[in-house]
Amino acid sequence: MAELLKGAPVAAALTAALAERTARLISGGVAPTLAILRVGERPDDLAYERGAMKRCEKVGVRVVHVVLPADCTQDALLAEIEKINADAGIHGCLMFRPLPKHIDESAVCEALAPEKDVDCMTAVSLNTVFTGRGRGFAPCTAQSCIEILDHYGIDPAGKSAAVVGRSLVIGKPVSMMLQSRNATVTMCHTKTVDLPTVCRRAEILVVAAGKAGVVGAAFTNPDQVVIDVGINPAPGGSICGDVQFDAVEPLVRAIAPVPGGVGAVTTAVLCKHVVEAAERAAAAL
Please, what's the b/e burial string for 184-222 (b: 16 or more CB within 10 A of its CB; e: otherwise)? Predict the structure, then answer.
C-alpha cells in the first residue's frame, strides 16, 4: 500500500507558519491583502474563491473582491487592474482564468504589476520560473507539487522525474522547478511515443495532462512517487484525477490523491505568495 501524500497536513503547516508572519506584518502596520478579480460566475471559479477566502481568513490575509459581469469590456477589466496596481494596500491579485473569449487574456495578464502577480500571470513571473532570476512567483498549483514533496521529505535531487503535461500553468513550470532542485526531468504529453514506458522509468511522476484516468498501472514502478494534479468531473458529482488511483496506488511507493492532494495545498500557497509580497512591500517602505 502506497503512502498517501495528503494535502491537508501540508496546508496546515503552511497556514500556521504564515499566520505568524502575517501577525508580524500587521503589528508593523502592514495588512497583507489579496485582490480577487473575477469575471462572471463560473462554478469552478466560485468554488476556488470560497476555498481561498477560508484560507485567507485562517492566515490573516485581507481579501478585496472585484467582480465584473461576463460581458464586461476589456477596457473595463483593464481599468480595474490599473486600480489594483495603484493601490499600495493591495499586495497580490488573483484573477480567474480563462477569461471570456472576447477579452485578450494575454494583454490583460501583462497589465498587472509584476510585484502583485502572485499566481504567475505575467511574463516577468514566468521568466523567474524558467531562468531562476528575478522575484516573480511560480503558479500556485505548480508550487503546491513542490510543497508536498518538501513536506514529506522527498528530495528530487539526483532523481529521475517525468512530467505529463506541457501547459504554462503546471507542466512546464513544475518541470523547471524540479530541474532547479537537481532532478533529471523528462517532459511528456499525451502525444509522447510509448508514454507508459517513459513514465515507468521515473522515480517522481507528476501528471497534469487534463484527462481523467490517462495514467494507469502500466506507467508505474514500485519505487515511484506520483503527484496527480488532475481535476476532472466524475459520476455522482465528485472529482477524479488524471491517474487511475485504484489501479496505481497498490503499485507505487507514494501518491498524492485526488481529491485531497495538490488541490488542498493551492490556496495555502496563494496566501504564502501574498504574505511574501507584503513583506517585500514593507521592506521597501
Answer: ebbbbeeebeebeebbbebbbbbbbbbebbbbeeebbee
